[in-house]
Task: structure prediction
Amino acid sequence: YDKFINSVIEESAGVTFSEINDLNGQIRPEMVKVTHENFFRIFRLDLFKQCPFWSGTEGFCMHRSCAVDTIDDWKDLPAVWQPEALGAIENASPASQDNSKDYCEIDEVNEDTVYVDLVQNPERFTGYGGDQSFQIWKSIYSENCFNLGHDQCVEKNFYYKLISGMHASISTHLSNEYLDLKTKQYGPNLKQFMFRVGDFPDRIENIYLNYIIVLKALIKLESSGILDNLEFSDDEQFRSKEVELKDELRDIIKPSYHLGDDTAECLFDENSLFQSADAAEIKDEIKENFRNVSRIMDCVHCDRCRLWGKVQTTGYGTALKVLFDLQKGKDYGNSTYDISKVELIALVNTFDRLSRSVESIKNFKKMYDVAIKAE
Ligand code: FAD
Result:
């Protein structure tokens, strides 16, 4: 636990596993509170978009646990979402945001748009597996092939770790809420965890690395003043709630400032990436590849997995955008930095997923120690 996290660029590794565990212990209660807020628990997506890469409908997951319960009546949505939801019903295609320069593709608002309460639809074991999910993961990892011939470049290494960390975090959640067929209850399954994650130290490390990356994006959003300028909604009545929510987000990152003088800064130094002569090309390629990963989510046959896959690819895409495209010190003034409601919600929920994974890993470690003693 006292080992330093290899933060891709080795010289900048400034934090240990146990420091992150302690930090997460402080962050966790606030994180639970924020993700249960009406604003952060609702996610918008299109569950019916065609897979753009291959055809075939044979793969629908028919288990009940693969299903998503959507909010079907716009009147049941929190007020901040109602105008948009009503617009989507009355007008098939309200103006959509141009996100062609982003790291992920965000679903447009149209007649297939659904709104989902993430708390009511937890990420857990669904039974989705076999050739279908294997094919999806294989395609996701194949987006790690770069055309420019930078086979050994540090950015490629970073990209692989990001994907592997996302995969390992998903595996941790499904092992932590695994269906016990005897009791019909969901609960932690140590065997599943060890087989998918625990026996692979690099996978654990990649989860912690993703934790640092997404936390650093939240810190940058705050310290750059962007968070202050963000407007979550045009609704006047929502203004005071918005101020409260921004304070809650500040409370999440506050404990990281107490790690040490400038530990928050050296958690992960994004400025060490994209420094070579062909950095712009490499960055474009990473953007393109990660956008493809987000599009692959439309090929996931299990709706519940697709939902959480979209939340997390959008969350990581937003973190990359904040870390690599937001210029520190630049005055964004009133022309608010372009982060949509969906991106912010995804970013916060993705951090919650990682925070939950770190907490679960700690619990699995305890279960493991007990099991070893009992042998
Ligand atoms: P998989 O997890 O499918 O892995 C395939 C191969 O990838 C492994 O054999 C291994 O060689 C390699 N690998 C595994 N983990 C890593 C890693 N971290 N880093 C590098 N390589 C790795 N199932 C659920 O029950 N609930 C969910 O919410 C859920 N969400 C999903 C979301 C997405 C986007 C996808 C594609 C799948 C999801 N699944 C979910 C399915 C789940 O991820 C597994 O694919 C499934 O349980 C089958 O597991 P497996 O043991 O065959 O290995």
Remarks:
- The pocket of flavin-adenine dinucleotide is lined by residues 123, 125-126, 128-129, 133-134, 136-137, 164, 167-168, 170-171, 174, 196, 203, 300, 304-305, 308-309 (CB under 6 Å).
- The chain has 13 helices and four strands.
- Strands lie at 42-46, 113-117, 178-180, 185-187.
- The first strand starts at residue 42 and ends at 46.
